[in-house]
User: What shape does this take?
Amino acid sequence: VLSASFIYIAALLRTSLVKMIHFVLLISRQGKVRLTKWYSPYSQKERSKVIRELSGVILARGPKLCNFVEWRGYKVVYKRYASLYFCMCVDQEDNELEVLEMIHHYVEILDRYFGSVCELDLIFNFHKAYYILDELLLAGELQESSKKTVARLIAAQDSLVETAKEQANSISNMIAQATK
Amino acid sequence: MNPFSSGTRLRDMIRAVRACKTAAEERAVIRKECAAIRAAVSENDQDYRHRNLAKLMFIHMLGYPTHFGQMECLKLIAAAGFPEKRIGYLGLMLLLDERQEVLMLVTNSLKQDLNHSNQYIVGLALCALGNICSAEMARDLAPEVERLLQFRDPNIRKKAALCSIRIIKKVPDLAENFINAAASLLKEKHHGALITGVQLCTDLCRVSEEALEYFRKKCTESMVKLLKEVVNSPYMPEYDIAGIADPFLHIRLLRFLRVLGQGDADASDLMNDILAQVATKSESNKNAGNAILYECVETIMSIEDNSGLRVLAINILGRFLSNRDNNIRYVALNMLMKAITVEGQAVQRHRATILECVKDNDASIRKRALELVYLLVNETNVMPLVKELIEFLEVSDQDFKGDLTAKICSIVEKFSPEKIWYIDQMLKVLSEAGNFVKDEVWHALIVVISNASDLHGYTVRSLYRVFQTSSEQESLVRVAVWCIGEYGEMLVNNVGMLDIEDPITVTGSDAVDIIEIAIKRHSSDLTTRAMCLIALLKLSGRFPSCSQRIREIIVQNKGSFLLELQQRSIEFSSIIEQHQNIRSTLVERMPVLDEATYSGKRAGSLSATGPTSNAASLNLPNGVAKPSAAPLVDLLDLSSDDVPAPSSSGGDFLQDLLGVDLSPAASLSGTGQAPKSGTDVLLDLLSIGSPPAQSSTSTADILSPSQDNTSVSSFQRISSPPSLSAQGSSPAQAAPMMDLLDGFSSSSPVAAEDNGLTYPSIVAFESSSLRINFDFSKAPGNPQTTLIQAKFSNLSPNVYTDFLFQAAVPKFLQLHLDPASGNTLPASVNGSIMQSLRVTNNQHGKKPLVMRIRIAYKVNGKDTLEEGQINNFPPDL
Assistant: This one.
């Protein structure tokens, strides 16, 4: 109990100093973690505790309730898209409605990138979901309000990777040819 | 090449994991993959490093440990190509956090990448820095980031701006370096760079007064102008959300204006028009529009007063409050909380709607609404509001009852116009949700009842009635038991009947029935039962005709496993049986409890708990979270502020009950005269209150009334009837008291242990060469913890050097060893080493202590080891 109160006090202190998104979670209906992004320092142990606690709270909530949960002096804004819950933890003072809009913004970009995104896309291409998130949020703040710009930046970086791969392949082909 | 690493692709591994039907299968797959990755790591495999790290990230998300992959991230980041760096930085952000030392190693790579010719690599480095940098890294890399704020591509400028936010939050001293570059971002046309620039300026103002002054002077007008442009901008497909051009930019501008306007009337004036325009023109049928309205309201409420605007803002909130969308109602409640300090009257107008929200079926909304109602209460509306809340308490969810009860109690205590109303409301709460009422609340109620002498009869009769229907509510039972014990005769004789009351017919035996039900309730805990026994003793004085039956009830607890109850049972039954002549004096009514002292003490403890924290169980000096009997001590002892929390023993309880100053009791723990301690209890019973340290010298001495001036003065302080102390200490009463002692000789060791007075020392370990003695004491107020003083003696003719004592305990115990007084033990018991141990027994009262020990030392340079187990601890430690 005592340590819980310390966490609470620490949370209060943290709240008064900064104002930002502290972390982003994607959790499936079954409670499986699909993406976690931490903008505030949480130890690995704290991270799994946070995930366990929050998925318990959020998955238990009924469909027609509001999209906000108060938790440890923070607010968690969540929204369900098909089988996935998108959650962002923000400070008490933050604009919850805007955070909902950010979640939607992210989902729309994912949707465009994958072409009607589903949970399986995010499982097998989880790193892509991270890359997109990194073009959208940075340091717990919104980075870009244009979906088109994010898509363009991701495409440019993907093609850099493709080019590098092709080069590597052609080099290994050349070596293979030469040593034949 | 490693035979494993060429095996599975990332995609195959994910498939394999997903194909697992049980957790054990999944663990097996992961174990195999991790083994392969470890092997690749140790072989410094380069071809598959990229893929292995991706696998590790997936494994990490499943919750398995992946620390062995941390260095792989650094290696990938240090590689030359973009693909390696991209995955390397991603792994760095996922697998590490800013508190890990490894992170320091990456500073140099980051510095190089921030200066890289490929802008996407610069972007990766900025992203990583912004997400995980520590204060040291912030200092090291701030100049690079500052320079990148002027990079040619706006996509790098925007990343640098957010990265700067992280830097100034970590190291606020650096803020001033960023002001100029941040100001130039405000002129950006690129939306990404603009919103991050506005955000950076806002955060600069938060950490630096200088920045705030600068931006207020230079930018207020241009920001107002910018917001105007954005609000009136034509359709922009790239940024459009629900017909609004870039709501994110709107919101950031409104937030920046808020910071600029707060506390500055001139700046606030400049923005009035545009705020009015946003407040009236924004679309309110889509979330994006409402998000802007919400931000606008907050800005209006925060900047300097403009009553016209504030009315507008409150109206928006009123509209929000009646919205069908739960999200909108939630934010309305949230904002009304902030508005209440500036526009209290306007918020009061929405009271009825807010009260409805307390009854909502959404827990988040209920919680917000309840907090708000709490702030809305004042002297004029307290009665109807509390009535509504209590009515709702009857039908609310179990989950919510705790919060609701706490708030109602707090409101009642704070705003109660009169005592009868206070008592009535508290009884209603106790009968509806007594199990949720905190100890300090019902303690306070008892103090209030005790002080309301004209309502004693009314209260005890009300409690009697309520008990009939709500006997499952623990705290109600306690208050009822206490009052019936104190004011039982008023219950029976209808004393002090108020006009509003219906007369009831209750006999003494009915009153005893109530206590009997309470003590036999299955769920009654130690505190309740102990209170029942006291009440029974008191009733035996009030209704002599029932005393035989009372004694029978009391005697049933003679065999209780709980020492507290056993002791009370034995003592009380012998008082009833053998000492009718002093009984009525013993069971006098409690002196009136001092409200001021109690509330002062409580205020002290509450402020330490914090205003909204439900964790009232912080270990406060006032003992909010002490074991069950301790609240009684708090309740009844009003004069022991400086005394360490007393142990929850019968002796203390009685001292408290009869209003004896507790300070002598504290000295009990040190003195420890076991055979005499039975006397203490009896002395206490008789309210002599002489320091027990003296009592152990001679019983006769204590009884001479001339001796204890201190205790008499303490009596006067709590205004107990003078007759009590006079009779209590008169020599005439000495003889029966001696008689009383006779009956107890067998139980006195029990009393001694329970008092925490003393425990016999033991020889914990003895071999031909070594002896260990243990002395025990208890920390006051903490019966679970035993302090052990260990003394080591060398029985051999040789000196022991490098002496080391180790101990191990089972899980239900916690052991703390202080350093020993030395590590050399002189020969032939010619000196000793002392060491303190502290053992906390989580199963106190259920399991005895047990300890396994190992002693290592050198005799003539030769290592010697002795081991043993200690099973002979005194019971009840």
Observations:
- Residues 1-17 of chain A have pLDDT under 50 and may be disordered.
- Chain A touches chain B through 61 residues (CB under 8 Å).
